[in-house]
Amino acid sequence: MKILVPIKRVVDANIKVRVAADNAGVDLNNVKMSMNPFCEIAVEEAVRLKEQGLATEIIAVTIGEEKSQEQLRTAMALGADRSIWIEQSGPVEPLAIAKLLQAVVKKEAPDLVILGKQSIDGDNNQVGQMLAALCDMPQGTFAFKLAIEDGRAIVSREVDGGEQVVSLALPAVVTTDLRLNEPRYAKLPDIMKAKKKPIEHIRPDALGVAVKSSLKTLSVSEPEGRSAGVLVSSARELVEKLRNEARVIP
Amino acid sequence: MTVLVIAEHNNLSLNPVTGSVIRAAGLIDAEIHVLVAGTGCESVAEAARQYEGVSKVLLADNAVYQHHLPETLAPLLLPISENYGAILSAASTSGKNLMPRIAALLDVGQISDIVAVHSPNTFVRPIYAGNALATVESSDPVKIITVRTSAFDEADKGEGWAAIETLDQVIHQDKSRFVSENLTTSERPELAGAAIVVSGGRGLGSAENFQLLEKLADKLGAAIGASRAAVDAGYVGNDLQVGQTGKIVAPDLYIAVGISGAIQHLAGMKDSKIIVAINTDADAPIFQVADYGLVADLFQVLPELEALL
Question: Among candidates A71, A66, A115, A69, which has minimal Cα distance to A94?
Fold first, then answer.
């Protein structure tokens, strides 16, 4: 079984971004960049399937500027066998990403595509579902458990109010939620070995995909801030304030 | 052009978040249709027609729609989508699952998680865990939108004159099969729509200690929430998680107990009207957003609060 793992380079999860002074976006100068946390979970899940003998090859793919190859190296240090870098500068909308990935799916014919449910920059939560639609594949979104049985993927999904299990014919698309696994850290020898693993460099036009945009960002602003309120000294004072000042409890 | 709203329901009752989506839809166009797809869900269609602004309810009632699988619903929606200028759903797990699939089949983008409508093609949505708000303009012929329902009040109920029209199309597919589901049943209000939420974090220390919160929640008629740290530690199920990747809530009162206030958690609750923080660590970031802070041992404070209420 061949697994394709699309990943994304994003602002590190521990960084609180600031809106740029010109309100055109957020300030990304000298900000630490990392692999999107949900993508790390996707890579880890693929590696575990390979360790269980269920997967034979893991291919990481990313769409981005030159530096996004760093995240491909990380994916390969964690266990991906090879990578594809689709060179594209500037923001790419989810539908265009899905179309580029669809072209890679056609080329590589993976049995399973595992990717993060959302990236923590755009917070869109779209690419996996769109890719599944374009490839006419079934989708198992927000997975917290994944098993391969009799040529089908059994995906346990996090849904509002509880859990749902679906059975998907392969090839299928699975998007990861936080509880799926705890990603490992790359070991130094694996980081060294990853430097020798191949990265294939492709441009969107070579895949026959025109990267289009239909959503224009007019402005980006800071949300209305909350300021710290008052400290109370006891449970009694708190209840008194909530009753008589805030009037949120009877 | 008419707007279509996808109803959120469990085949028996309509989830009130649909009312919030209808409110948002009304800001795009005055003519609103609602799609109810499920099985044995006439009562849901009946509830949907009660909302003001809804002129038609489309009812697709068949066993194949029981579990709202996107592989089944997307092909059902595809042929009717050309009648609409926008299709909206709640940014719930089912809406997030379905809508991008429809968007891709229509070859249009999706506008996720909108919190405001500026015009029929201009919307506001949070990015970077709500640390920034983007105003975006869509040039797509059909706008596919998910709505952050905590940002819109439920639509008013009117006379309920909307016509119910049946969709007879039945979609068969075997690529995706429903196997099972395990939904939490609780006497408490649902987290997403509750007026009061009592949330616990790692400070609670154990699953047993969460019962202290439950007692307080019961006194207040509140829903229970949790930080990711509490979920990761196994104190409660993930369906209670409030935050960037969990539930987004905006109740009248949010009581954060033993929660430090990571940005991912704040993203899920900072639009609450009143925030209370109870934590032993006076430097915890949660105090920077709290209207009322109490630096104290929660194990001492919780029983006191319960006794006072």
Answer: A115
Here the ipTM equals 0.93
pTM attached to this predicted model: 0.92
Q: Is B159 exposed, middle or buried (0-12, 13-18, 19+ CB in 10 A)?
A: exposed
Provide the shortest C-alpha distance from residue A230 to chain B (in Å): 5
Residue with tokens 């594949």: A137
CB pair distance less than 8 Å for B140 and A118? no
- Give the model confidence (pLDDT) of B184-241 as tens digits: 777 888 887 789 999 999 999 999 999 999 999 999 999 999 999 999 899 998 889 9
A132 chain-B contacts, CB cut-off 8 A: 101
Task: Give the integer Cα–Cα distance in Å for B187 and B276.
Answer: 24
- Among B98, B188, B245, the residue to mutate for chain A (most A Cβ within 10 A): B245
**Around Cβ A211, how many Cβ atoms within 10 Å?**
18
Q: Two tokens at B17?
A: 């978040």
**Partner residue facing A126 (CB), from B100, B134, B290:** B100
Nearest to B113 among A123, A217, A218 (CB): A123
Please, are residues B76 and B110 in contact by the beta-carbon 8 Å criterion?
Answer: no
Cβ contact B20:B90 at 8 Å: yes
